Amino acid sequence: MGTYKYSAEFRADAVALARSSGWPVSRIAAELGVNHETLRQWIKTAEKAERPEAVAASAKDAEIAALRKQVRELEMERDILRRAAKYFAGETNW
């Protein structure tokens, strides 16, 4: 994992402040000394973490991507083995 400039507790507090106050995110971010886009990302991440179906969906998406990568690798290996078999079958002249 990467290193973070702000602790998880600070991020959680900033998100809670942004949600509870009626102020714009940019103003809260300025008062906290954080870039407003960074605070928006923290809010978006917190909202995503609160929805269990979103976590499940992202886990499914990650699994699907990994399986598709594995399929591509296996297809490539199969093609290489087919070419090798064809080459060696022509070499033996049986």
From TrEMBL:
<dbReference type="InterPro" id="IPR002514">
    <property type="entry name" value="Transposase_8"/>
</dbReference>
<protein>
    <submittedName>
        <fullName>Transposase</fullName>
    </submittedName>
</protein>
<dbReference type="GO" id="GO:0006313">
    <property type="term" value="P:DNA transposition"/>
</dbReference>
<dbReference type="Pfam" id="PF01527">
    <property type="entry name" value="HTH_Tnp_1"/>
</dbReference>
<dbReference type="InterPro" id="IPR051839">
    <property type="entry name" value="RD_transcriptional_regulator"/>
</dbReference>
<dbReference type="GO" id="GO:0003677">
    <property type="term" value="F:DNA binding"/>
</dbReference>
<dbReference type="InterPro" id="IPR009057">
    <property type="entry name" value="Homeodomain-like_sf"/>
</dbReference>
<feature type="coiled-coil region">
    <location>
        <begin position="57"/>
        <end position="84"/>
    </location>
</feature>
<dbReference type="GO" id="GO:0004803">
    <property type="term" value="F:transposase activity"/>
</dbReference>
<keyword id="KW-0175">Coiled coil</keyword>
